[in-house]
Each structure stands twice: as C-alpha cells, then as structure tokens.
UniProtKB/TrEMBL annotation:
UniProt entry keywords in alphabetical sequence: Acyltransferase, Repeat, Transferase
Species of the source: Streptomyces kunmingensis
Single GO MF annotation: acyltransferase activity
Keyword Repeat: yes
Lineage start: Bacteria, Bacillati, Actinomycetota, Actinomycetes, Kitasatosporales
InterPro entries in UniProt: Hexapep, Hexapep_transf_CS, Hexapeptide_acetyltransf, Trimer_LpxA-like_sf
Name this polypeptide is given: Acyltransferase
UniProt keyword Cytoplasm, yes or no: no
Length: 247
C-alpha cells in the first residue's frame, strides 16, 4: 500500500482539531467547575475570602459550614477538605478548619479536621500533603483497628511555613512560624519558630538564632533580592541577559 501524503495530512488535521476541541473543553470545565466566593458551586463554606479558588476537580469536601477559608488562597486539584468525622453533623458554633489568607495547598493533598485544625496565613504546601487531627487507636488487641474509637487532638500550623511534598502532619502537632517541613517528613508534637524539620518521625535539623543566625550554617548563599521598583519588563530583560551570559 502506497503512502498518501494528502490522506495522511487530512487525518492529522482532523486529529489536531479534535485535540484542540478537547483541550478547550477541558479548560472551560476547569474554569466553570472552580469554587470561588462568587461561584460557590453548591458549597456553603463558613467563609471564603476574596480571590480564593478551589481548583476543579475538587476532592472530597464536606462540613463546609465549619470551614473558613481566608482571602487569596489557592487550593489545587483533588484536594480534600473535611470538617467532622462525616457529613451532616452539627459541629457547634465555632469553626473546625481555618485557613488564613494566602494559603496554598498543593494538588492531591488532604486536610482532615475531625477536631480543630488551624493553618496560618501564607502557608505553602507542596502536592500530596496529609494533615489530620485524628489517629487510629489500637488499645484493644482483639478488635479490628478500624473499628476502635480514634484519638483526636487539635493541629496548629503557624504563619509563613513551607510544607514539602508528601509530608504528614499528625494529631497534636503545633508548628511554629516560618518552619520548613521537609518532603516526606512525619510531624507530631511541637516545632519551634524558624526551624527545619525532616525525617520520619521528624526531628529538628536546623534552627535560627537572632545572634548566631542559622545553625548549622546554611551551605549556600542567600538569593539576591529583586531590587525594588523593577517593572515586569525589566525582570524579563534581566532574565534574558542572564541566559545569554550563562548566568
């Protein structure tokens, strides 16, 4: 069978058109399915601040009246946000899950607030972070663990923290201000301000002191800050200059 350039081009053109239609349709679905204060999509949160967006598709979301989301939060795709052990419970007058302004939750993460979970402003999380205020108990060796009543403790994450990919924050964790939680770390208990924790279970691997600075000292110099007053056009030109000079 001889190859026909015209028929091949026709099939390619039709395939390209279908691809563009599917991509455009999916972008429309993502825009339309996103949850915002102006477009709640059936969700009735206790509060949802201006500029906050829950990307589509969302993960499991329930207990919305007891969930308060600050302004300018970014919630990635397939993120689970729950308040209470199951839907349709009356959890009382106070919020259970609270996010401060500017919180970013990465794709596929889970925040399970059976009791109080508080996340401070400007906390950034990578994808697949797991935060829970509930843990299974195994006191009775004869009863299946999943059937034993769980233990619950509040969780608090201070402002300005970075939570790395795949980190797990367990019940009772109290994480201070501007803390780095390394990827894959499993955190429980108290973490002081300005610390770096890593490992499973997590331990403190670096701390900051007002006089001595970071201990142990950082191995790389601090990034040079962007000069104040620079325009976006100047930043783009600076980046292009760096590429041409191999910087």
């Amino acid at each position: 069978m001889k190859w026909n350039a015209f028929s091949s081009a026709g099939r390619s053109s039709r395939g390209g058109l279908g691809h563009r239609v599917v991509q455009a349709g999916w972008r429309w679905v993502q825009r339309t399915g996103a949850v915002t204060a102006e477009q709640p999509g059936g969700h009735r949160f206790g509060a949802i601040g201006h500029g906050t967006k829950l990307s589509f598709p969302q993960g499991t979301v329930f207990g919305e009246p007891w969930i308060r989301l600050g302004a300018h939060c970014i919630i990635g795709e397939q993120v689970t946000l729950t308040a209470g052990m199951m839907p349709d419970l009356d959890l009382g007058p106070e919020p259970i899950l609270t996010l401060g302004d500017g919180v970013v939750i990465g794709r596929g993460s889970h925040v399970i607030a059976d009791t109080t979970v508080t996340i401070g402003r400007d906390v950034y999380m990578g994808p697949y972070v797991y935060i829970t205020s509930t843990n299974h108990s195994y006191d009775d060796p004869h009863e299946p663990i999943g059937k034993q009543w769980p233990r619950m403790e509040p969780v608090e994450i201070g402002p300005g923290c970075w939570i790395g990919t795949g980190a797990v924050i367990l019940p009772g964790a109290r994480i201070g201000r501007n803390v780095v939680v390394a990827a894959g770390a499993v955190v429980r208990g108290e973490v002081p301000d300005h610390a770096v924790v890593a490992g499973a279970p997590a331990r403190t691997v670096r701390t900051w002191d007002a006089e001595a600075g970071w201990q142990p000292p950082l191995r790389t110099p601090a990034p040079r800050p962007i000069p104040s007053g620079m325009t976006p056009e100047q930043l783009v030109a600076l980046g292009e200059l760096g590429e041409t000079q191999g910087l």
